[in-house]
Design brief:
globular, 423 residues
């Protein structure tokens, strides 16, 4: 098996292109999640303009997730088979165009169609971006580099409150129009700046032709990958259940305005996630120098520590206590985000990193979408959101156990692959 460690294990200089790449992709990651998240903070404005039930509103996000997840393996394979940077640029351009088209919707069916189209276009980004980062950053910096990129994603999520604010100050259509134009413009800029990492000659000679069927066989025969797949899927259930319904929870439980609820559910929440993913990446890189299991043990520990925060935040009647509880969860949960692609690069064939991550996304998004839609259905049946949050906490415990069970043998073997000389 060819692993990602077959490429030199050198630490990139601070101002080198590998770090510039991370910075460029941070902006794309921010736009990626901002465009998909703003709809959750402008629920009242959208429902006032286009009447729908809570189940239908939940379906808007669920359909996006299901299509996004179903296409992620194919999208990841495209990034493995073709030029990663071009896949990223094309994805950004198309989803930004779809974001603008969303602003033109006037019926529920049109909104549903644009969310489906966004799922198709955004599916190509994350697998390609994380694989490209790992192409440039090896063992010494791969968790931190991945964590910095995910931090950019969290910046986009933390700005999700802008959707509610712009919807109240202008209209719900206005936000989609503005962010769509910004994304299209940035895609043009990246055409001149983004490039793939050169492949070492050893990989060019040794690697067989990339094939989707072979990718599936190589990935699913690894027990460590199967455990990672199950853990990532369960994390998707808990994460999407919380992020999709947290603005509504704050608004209803503490009688807040749509804008204030959006601020508490995104700005405070994702600031904590921002620092959490950076901390998780840096600690994992440091601990992995002495413990080959660091990149699975650290996220497992963090998920256990996140559970009390969810339970506290979802049961208290005091606003600042709820905010503190969900911020604890928000700080601990992204330790896994910073380390999932690095773990994948340690336990699977390096030719299929994007495909492997795409399959992770498939499982996560499909079950996550089911969780969100089920949450909307339960709300229509007058089930309290606090109960859903407690289920999410239990799910994180199971996820932590699965991470702990990833076999150390697989990790040790891939860490010990001989390095080749730098070209």
């Amino acid at each position: 098996m060819i692993t990602n460690n077959d490429i030199p294990n050198q630490k990139p200089k601070l101002f080198s292109y590998p770090w510039l790449l991370v910075g460029l992709l941070c902006v794309v990651g921010a736009l990626n999640y901002l465009d998909r998240m703003i709809i959750t903070t402008m629920r009242t404005s959208i429902v006032d303009a286009i009447p729908m039930t809570d189940a239908q509103f939940g379906l808007l996000t669920s359909v996006f997730l299901w299509i996004y997840g179903l296409l992620s393996p194919v999208a990841g394979f495209l990034a493995d088979r073709f030029n990663r940077s071009r896949v990223i640029i094309g994805s950004l351009f198309v989803w930004s165009l779809v974001t603008w088209l969303t602003s033109q919707a006037t019926t529920f069916e049109q909104l549903l169609a644009t969310r489906a189209l966004m799922g198709i276009s955004e599916a190509c980004y994350i697998p390609a971006a994380l694989a490209l980062i790992v192409d440039y950053h090896k063992n010494v910096t791969k968790s931190l580099a991945t964590g910095i990129h995910i931090a950019g994603v969290y910046v986009g999520q933390s700005l999700g409150f802008l959707g509610g604010w712009l919807a109240e100050s202008h209209s719900w259509n206005y936000a989609f129009s503005v962010f769509g134009i910004v994304g299209i413009s940035y895609a043009v800029v990246l055409t001149f700046l983004l490039k793939d990492a050169p492949k070492p000659q050893t990989l060019k000679v040794q690697a067989p032709k990339i094939n989707f069927g072979d990718a599936l066989r190589q990935l699913f025969r690894q027990p460590a990958y199967l455990l990672a797949l199950a853990a990532w899927g369960l994390l998707g259930v808990a994460s999407w259940m919380i992020s999709a319904w947290l603005p509504t929870y704050y608004k209803e439980a503490f009688s807040l305005t749509q804008t204030d609820a959006g601020v508490y559910a995104t700005a405070y929440f994702y600031v904590a996630m921002f620092f959490g993913v950076l901390t998780g990446g840096a600690l994992a890189d440091y601990w992995s120098k002495s413990n080959p299991r660091a990149r699975v043990l650290l996220p497992a520990i963090s998920l256990v520590l996140a559970c009390p925060g969810i339970i506290l935040g979802g049961t208290t009647s005091i606003l600042w206590v709820a905010v503190a509880g969900f911020m604890l969860y928000a700080f601990m949960r992204p330790f896994l985000d910073a380390n999932m692609m690095p773990v994948l690069s340690m336990v699977s064939d390096s030719r299929y990193l994007a495909t492997g991550y795409g399959i992770l996304n498939l499982f996560s998004c499909v079950v996550g979408g089911i969780g969100i839609y089920a949450g909307g259905t339960l709300r229509d049946a007058n089930i309290n959101l606090s109960l859903m949050f407690q289920v999410a906490a239990l799910t994180l415990l199971v996820c932590a156990f699965l991470l702990y069970k990833i076999p150390i043998k697989n990790l040790q073997q891939t860490e010990e692959v001989p390095e080749v000389a730098a070209k």
